[in-house]
Design goal:
Blueprint (H helix, E strand, L loop, with lengths): L1 H25 L13 H23 L4 H24 L29
Helix pairs in contact: 1-2, 2-3
């Protein structure tokens, strides 16, 4: 069973690495991420770190069952995932996560005092 999980994570790492390489070399980012990514090469580097972490996670399933080695690998994968997230978010502008309310929606306009009765 562990060989199948290892193969699954290795295949996932390969797919993620292709996206990271495309971002680093060509500056291409997936269309769903383009609006929030300002520096695609830095984002691609974070994606490559994520791919290495996924590969290490897959290798941990296949490798020996020694407790010390397993805990060291788990810590290494955790640090890789956290650093990947930090690298990827450092390439985005501040406030990119916040949703801007749509002010073109139909409805009655509400004044600064609220929808109360005005006199």
């Amino acid at each position: 069973m562990s060989i199948y999980l290892g193969a699954f994570f290795a295949l996932g790492a390969l797919v993620v690495a292709v996206g990271g390489i495309a971002a680093v070399i060509y500056g291409w980012v997936l269309p769903s991420r383009r609006a929030t990514v300002v520096r695609p090469r830095l984002y691609g580097l974070g994606v490559l770190v994520l791919a290495v972490s996924l590969f290490l996670m897959g290798a941990a399933f296949v490798a020996s069952t020694d407790v010390i080695e397993s805990s060291v690998r788990t810590i290494a994968v955790g640090l890789g995932l956290v650093s990947s997230k930090m690298i990827r978010t450092s390439g985005r502008p501040a406030g990119a996560d916040q949703q801007v309310p749509d002010e073109t929606s139909p409805g009655s306009p509400v004044g600064p005092d609220g929808p109360g009765d005005r006199q």
